[in-house]
Amino acid sequence: MGSIAFQQGVAGDLPQASDFQIPQLRNASREPAKMIYRILHDESYLMHVIPPVESMTKLGEEHGTFAFNAEPKSYRDVWKPLEIEFRPCEGSKATEVPDVSENFGRLFLSERAFEVLGELLGQCGECLPVTFGGRKGYIFNPTLTAEQAGAVDNQLLSYDEHGNLSHFGFKEPNLLGVHVFKTELDLYKGVFCLESIKAAFTDANLTGIVFSEDASGPTGQAHGETH
After folding, report:
1. What does the pLDDT read at residue 219?
2. 170 and 185 Cβ atoms separated by less than 8 Å
3. Are 191 and 39 in contact (CB under 8 A)?
4. How many whole angstroms separate alpha carbon 186 and alpha carbon 104?
5. Where are the alpha helices (DSSP H) in 66-131?
6. What is the pLDDT at residue 2?
7. Cα(181)–Cα(38) distance, rounded to whole angstroms?
8. What CA–CA distance (Å, rounded) separates 21 from 140?
9. Whole-angstrom distance, CA of residue 89 vs CA of residue 96
C-alpha cells in the first residue's frame, strides 16, 4: 500500500493506532427535540463495509465482532484503525465514495463530514479512526439508546399476527439534547437522529445518506445493506 497524506502537503507511512487521537467532545446541549428521523444509506453512493477478518485480526476475538455486532458498546479503549472497503448496494451502479455512509447501525464519516458532524455525533457515541484506499476517515459508533434516555413510548408499540414488532415510537421530550441514538427494539440496527444532525448535514451539502421521517418501523425503508 502507498503512503497516506495526513495533512495537506505532508505524506507519511500507513498509520498505527498510536497515530490517531479519538476525539473527546463536549457535553450535549439542551435544545428542544424536534422531528425524529431514521438515517438511511443513499444507494446512489457506495456503502462502507467493515471486513470481518480485518476486525477480528486487529481487535481480537473478544472485540472483533464489531464488524457484525450492532450493540451500542464502546470500543474506544481497544480500538486499532481498521482498513474498510466501499461497495455498491445490490443493483446500484454507484462509483463514488460519499461523505457519510450508513450500514448496520453505524456511520462512516469522511474527514470533511467529521469536521461538520463530529462534535454533535461525539456527544452520543464515539468516532473511531479508519483508513480506506490510502485515505482517512471515521466510523461513528452510536452508544446512546432510547432506552437509556427513557424515550421508548410503550403505548405506541404494536405487533403483527405472528408476534413480531411492527410499530414503535419515541417520547420526544425525553430526547432533549440528544442528537443520535439507537434502540433495542430493532436490535440496534437502525440509526435515529434529531433535526440538529439533518440541518448540519444539509447546510454543509454533504452526501451519502437520506433522512426518513418514517422512524416507527423496526426495519425502516430498504436502502440496501451490503456485507
Report:
1. 55
2. no
3. yes
4. 11
5. 111-122
6. 42
7. 10
8. 14
9. 12
Q: Which three cell numbers stand for residue 111?
A: 474527514
Q: pLDDT per position in the chain (227 positions), as tens?
A: 443 333 333 333 433 434 444 444 344 444 444 689 999 999 999 999 999 999 999 999 999 999 999 999 999 999 999 999 999 999 999 999 999 999 999 999 999 999 999 999 999 999 999 999 999 999 999 999 999 999 999 999 998 898 888 889 999 999 999 999 999 999 999 999 999 999 999 999 999 999 999 887 655 543 333 33
The C-alpha cell that represents 192 in the structure block: 435515529
- Enumerate the H helices of 155-226 as residue ranges: 195-203
Distance of CA 205 to the CA centre of its chain: 18
Q: CA 25 → CA 21, 117, 132, 184, distances in Å?
A: 12, 11, 24, 25
| C-beta separation of 15 from 58 below 8 A | no
HSE-CB at 86 with a 13 A cutoff on CA atoms is 30
Q: Cell digits for 2?
A: 502507498
| Cβ(67)–Cβ(54) below 8 Å | yes
Residue with cell 456485507: 227
Q: What are phi and psi of 118, to 5 degrees?
A: -55, -40
C-alpha cell at 156: 405506541
Torsion 60-62-67-73 (CA) sign? negative
Strands 125-132 and 82-83: parallel
Identify whether the C-beta of residue 109 lies closer than 8 Å to the C-beta of residue 118.
yes
